[in-house]
Amino acid sequence: QVQLVESGGGLVQAGGSLRVSCAASGPIFHNLLMSWFRQVPEKERQLVAGISRSGAIIKYADAVKGRFTISRGSNQNTVFLQMNDLKPEDTAVYYCAADSDAGDSEVYRDFGFYAYWGQGTQVVVSS
């Protein structure tokens, strides 16, 4: 079973920056589609950013374009989300998600397509 372990997150003032990391381990035989979702109470998880298995396709939510950057580490199944110019509306639990069956250039926006999930990390942005 593939496991995703997240780190980072925490409390930051509006305008500040945070970086969250996600490392995949287990029976992994090729690069994974890896994405970050976020969820607030009573709402569905929403895609924040995703990077395709090939790395050629990156997608962002409109709300974070120009402020957040997703990237892979030297270990291709580690992914980072650099969050700059944070706003109170970015407050959420951030989840790492991965899938091994996606096409090389696919990034799913629907959380239902992802087979593997991290435990979530809280990000709180104070005004």
Count of DSSP-assigned helices: 0
The number of distinct β-strands equals 11
* Strand residue percentage: over 45%
Binned, the helix content reads under 10%
Note the main sheet.
7 strands, mixed
> What's the alpha carbon Rg, rounded to whole Å?
14 Å
User: What shape does the CA trace take?
Assistant: globular
Given as residue ranges, the uncertain stretches (5+ residues, pLDDT < 50) are none
Straight-line distance between termini: 40 Å
The helix-strand sequence is EEEEEEEEEEE
The assigned structural class equals: mainly beta
- Rounded average pLDDT: 95
Q: What does the model show?
A:
The chain has 127 residues and is an all-beta fold. 0% of the residues lie in helices and 48% in strands. It is built from no helices and eleven strands. Strands 2, 4, 5, 6, 9, 10 and 11 form a seven-stranded mixed β-sheet that branches. A four-stranded antiparallel β-sheet has the order 1-3-8-7, with no helix packed on it. A hairpin with a 5-residue loop joins strand 7 (68-72) and strand 8. The chain is globular, with a radius of gyration of 14 Å. The mean pLDDT is 95.
